[in-house]
Amino acid sequence: MAKIKHHNFLNTVHEVFTDAKNAGVLHLYAGGNSFSGRTIEIDGRELYHFGTTGYLGLEQDPRLKKAAMEAIDRYGTQFPLSKSYISNPLYSELEDSVKKMFGHPIVITKNSTLGHMGVIPSAVDDDDVIILDHQVHWSVQNAAKMLKTRSVPIEMIRHNHLEMLEDKIKKYRDSKRHIWYMADGIYSMYGDYAPVKDLMALSKKYPQLHFYFDDVHGMSWVGKNGTGYVLDQLGELTENVLLFGTLSKTFGASGAVLACSNPRLYDKIKTFGGPLTFSAQLEPASVAAAMASARIHLSPEIYELQRELRERIDHFNSSLSDTELPLIDQNESPVFYIGTGMPKTGYNFVNRLMREGFFVNLGIFPAVPVKNTGVRITISRHNQFKEIRALVEAMKHHFPKALEETHTNAERVFHAFKLEPRTRSVQKVVDRPKIQVFDSIGQMDREEWNRYLGGQGVYDWDGLKFLEGVFQGNTKREHNWSFRYVVIRDESGVPILTTFFTLSLWKDDMLANAKVSQAIELERRNDPYHLSSQVLSMGCLFTEGGHMYWDTSHKWSERAQHVLLEWMEVQERTLGAKMTVLRDFSKETLWNDMLYGHGFLRVRMPSSCAVQLKGVESIETYVDGLSSRNRRHYRKDIQPFLVRANKQVVTKLPASHLEQVKSLFEEVQARNLGLNTFSFPDALFDWMNEDPLWEFILLESLDEPDRVLGVMFCYNNTGKVYVPAFVGMDYSVLEEYATYRQLLYWTIERAIERGFPKIDFGMTAAFEKRKLGAAIQDRYAYLQTDDNYILELLGVMEGQH
């Protein structure tokens, strides 16, 4: 399987955004010669604006506009000096006003992203630890990761999971001075809250606990002087809290603000805070607009503005309560999220609402899990009550149409968000293929299975019978797999699609950087199942290749895709899988658009390697047919070593050799943290030793005939393909005997000797296999995760290793 590398992640985000852009719902440009806040022009059409983060509408307030224009006239478009040297003449008044709002010392920053980058490294000491809520804003996570260079540990917990937070506190309370928990006050996608009061109660129990709150989405529309949700919950800013607010968004101007009641910490941040020291200061227009807004915040008018917004929020909540729309979190914030589940349903729904005259935002990966795509609606004072009602009516009308048009239903959406459906969907009756599902290959017709899926890997009928025997009835959880065989047939019973799945326990870091896995393995010494999850996967961890037969020419080929994906959703839910994986696709697969639309992410896997041997009569003929460069490699790096060890091919090992090859395989697996999986059961090798379709290519020491230096475990798939499935090696003599290269060479010789037309050389070590003539083919997997927690946790850990 693939490693989730940083570039792999960025490529995935790029593909998701490109998909949304092509659907016409992202990277749009507003038109028109002016902007009111109530409407927004897109492609020449005026749409009612339900996508702003200016919840109070202050960005259109005449007083802010006038102040900004006068400041430009008096001071120019910018004041091009570092604020460490001298601030523009307006700054002092702004700082005094904002300080009066919060009742505590403040620091004004260019924006919240630069603010976090300046404050977090200054506030967190080398002997502290950071714990991130996994939904805390990217800008906070990114700034926290800067501390990896100082070896500050960074942990992550599931969203608002206070039991998990307490476990992390216990882990560090005896070794760290301060334990910083970083969270949003109001989360920008679902509009849900941080449990501030419960967190403060936890800090009374653990005095080391400090908080860093990003409350930019809670600012202005709630709280005394509009200082936001967190301070409203706190009542008083305590010394163990750093609070970030904003001077943009609802505040109506630009910039951000940090409030700090700890004098020592405030001086430390204020004196030298990275970007706070070196970045340009706010432009005069922004400072003046913020001053005008601060005056409003310090007056009784702010409460009238908050009341007017609350009336609109209440009206929207009331209107939604009369619908079946999947509102993901009901609260009193101005942010609402209507789930659509699949991205393509979200694209369809957003486009329908825009055609109806309403602009809303799409929530997509990585801000939310891909299968938790939805429509993010924000309410502002610009919105009129009749427009709010009209939006709800439009959503009621178009939501079921978007579902139907994208081949899904409301139940699937509710299940995607782990919500109980309010009513059961009535499926529209259409001609569709029939699905058959079996839990043993013995229930499948052997000839039919091999006709469609034989001849590759270890998953012909006999190979799967072997695997079922090995991976059932074992004592350890990871050694027991559930198999599902799926055949989707047309009305005549002809297969359109055939495949198989396994449910098995995977290490969550199987796709991660090897150094990350190395760190996690230390934790597994005490907890063997730390960071492990049940995964529903096409194929299994023992096999590789094209695990699916799909008749693309069939009239119902697309319907077969929908039937399979619906079945997978039910299986994932029923079996409790945390991730679903479809794997071993080519980059040009016709499944790509369908899978992206259904909430899968594509990641690159190690390349697949195969050797074609049709017409090759001997190993000498084969070597002569290699390129001149590869022949040189053979003569220099392989041929001299062939006489240093004894090669043997056996179908049944004596007991002493069997124990050795087990040990050699474990030695390879222990070093392969770039593909970190649980071990296989010991019974695997006993089954191999008794199965006539398996044989062992051994390298034995000339000096110690009973000593095995290396082994290739090879499977005969229907006489059509030779499969060197796994390798075992003694690493202490790896270079002395060129063990791996020898085993590759002897495998090719053995396949030619037995008349196989092809070798499936599997994944990994493509560089070595290519030098012996293997053809390399890129392979991709599609992942659908239960949530983003594991991906983000591994990302944080990768940043530290």
TrEMBL record:
The keyword RNA-binding does not apply. It comes from the Bacteria. InterPro entries: Acyl_CoA_acyltransferase, Aminotransferase_I/II_large, AON_synthase_class-II, BioF2-like_GNAT_dom, PyrdxlP-dep_Trfase, PyrdxlP-dep_Trfase_major, PyrdxlP-dep_Trfase_small. Keywords: Aminotransferase, Transferase. The keyword rRNA processing does not apply. Its cofactor is pyridoxal 5'-phosphate. Residues 658-769 form the BioF2-like acetyltransferase domain. Gene3D superfamilies: Aspartate Aminotransferase, domain 1, Type I PLP-dependent aspartate aminotransferase-like (Major domain). Transmembrane segments: none annotated. Residues 50-384 form the Aminotransferase class I/classII large domain. GO terms for molecular function: transaminase activity. This is Aminotransferase class I/II-fold pyridoxal phosphate-dependent enzyme.
